[in-house]
Specification:
The structure is a single chain. By secondary structure, the chain is mostly beta strands. It has a single domain, classed as Tachylectin-2, Chain A, CATH 2.115.10. The chain contains 7 helices and 23 strands. The protein has an 8-stranded mixed beta sheet with strand order 3-4-5-6-10-9-8-7. Strands 1, 13, 16, 17, 18, 19 and 20 form a 7-stranded antiparallel beta sheet that branches. A 4-stranded antiparallel beta sheet has the order 2-23-22-21, with no helix packed on it. It is globular and about 50 Å long. The two termini are about 30 Å apart. The N terminus is likely disordered.
Length: about 350
């Protein structure tokens, strides 16, 4: 009987393109929802991950940078990490300010001990003619994604009593000579709840589409969350279903070859407007030691694109070890670092931090 089952699996693998990859990664790619009988049992212990802080110097290190997103630019001279400030106009560069860049090799050299000095990100000039005239109540950029030589940014604004989000695209020079945004590509991102200071906080390039994620997807405030989807020239496409997730979504990684990506899932206990219910993921998988002792939540949750929308991957979140004094780190930017783990950045709370989480990734 076992021999027949094995032969059947081999036959299916040969007949269905891509099935072999899915079978290899099946333990970590099953997409489901909290409460499904198919989800794994609660583990005995959740291991929390230490955040290794990478020291920064220069203008980026000040609280005024208010970093709000991370993305990789693939370059012929090596990968370059783009660090997006919420308000690029605070920095000298182009007519509309600048964002920051840091070479992957510099980061790896520091992590490997080949350099012990603080890292100094460089400024990339930005041009966005007419943007601030069009976007009334501009409250800054919230996320960043790169596809080839095109750059995509989400914007938060409060033109009146209610919030409004936008997405815009432009060109980034491979030599980092400039970023030039095209206001003609500007598209609206209508908020999914009536919450101040919350719009689409993450953006993901997925194949031939751009997908944006709203910041608040908890059951009490956003009972039917969706992900907004656009073509690469920012023409609207049908929305995608997105799972309920308590707390905030503040950034997302790029998509891997299996259609998976990670988001930052963060909670500051005084953020009562989120009205969180008892966390289904904590009930399902358990929590780490510091999370059991505090209300702060700092974790990464994995998702996957499927034919029916975006679903959670059936595995525990990656919990970060919290600070012992209860200080919450408002992580606002997230990328994968090759197969070694993740890089994260905070905004100004508690200060500008660049962190590394070591974790084997496929």
């Amino acid at each position: 009987m076992k021999k027949n089952i094995f032969l059947l699996i081999v036959l299916l693998t040969l007949m269905v393109p891509g099935l072999s990859g899915c079978l290899r990664s099946a333990p970590t790619t099953t997409s489901t929802q909290p409460g499904d009988d198919s989800m794994t049992p609660v583990p005995e212990k959740i291991v929390e991950h230490e955040v290794v802080l990478i020291p920064l110097e220069g203008k980026v290190a000040g609280a005024s940078s208010e970093l709000s997103g991370l993305a990789w630019l693939e370059s012929g001279n090596g990968n370059i990490l783009l660090l997006l400030p919420q308000y690029p106009q605070r920095f000298t560069g182009g007519e509309d300010g600048a964002i920051f860049s840091l070479r992957e090799e510099e980061i790896l050299a520091w992590l490997d001990g080949r350099n012990t000095q603080p890292l100094i990100p460089q400024l990339v000039p930005m041009y966005a003619p007419g943007l601030l005239d069009i976007v009334q109540g501009f409250e800054g950029f919230e996320s960043i994604a790169v596809k080839d030589d095109r750059i995509y940014l989400t914007i938060e604004a409060k033109p009146g009593a209610d919030m409004m989000g936008y997405v815009i695209s432009g060109i980034i020079a491979e030599d980092l000579g400039e970023i030039r945004l095209d206001v003609n590509t500007l598209a609206e991102l209508k908020p999914q709840a009536n919450l101040s200071n919350m719009t689409d906080e993450a953006i993901v390039a997925a194949g031939g589409s751009l997908v944006t994620l709203y910041e608040a997807n908890g059951e009490n405030i956003n009972p039917n969350p969706v992900a907004h989807r656009f073509s690469l020239d920012l023409q609207p496409q049908p929305d995608l279903a997105f799972p309920a997730l308590e707390y905030r979504v503040t950034d997302a990684t790029s998509v891997d070859k299996y259609g998976r990506f990670w988001v930052i899932n963060y909670f500051f206990p005084e953020d009562t407007k989120l009205k969180p219910i008892p966390d289904p993921l904590a009930a399902l998988y358990g929590e780490g030691e510091t999370h059991q002792a505090q209300e702060v939540v700092e974790r990464l949750v994995e998702f996957q694109f499927t034919e029916s929308g975006i679903q959670m991957v059936d595995q525990p979140p990656v919990y970060l070890k919290l600070l012992p004094d209860g200080t919450a780190r408002n992580w606002e930017g997230l990328v994968r670092l090759a197969d070694r783990g993740f890089l994260l950045v905070t905004d100004k709370y508690p200060e500008t931090l660049l962190g590394f989480i070591e974790m084997a990734l496929p």
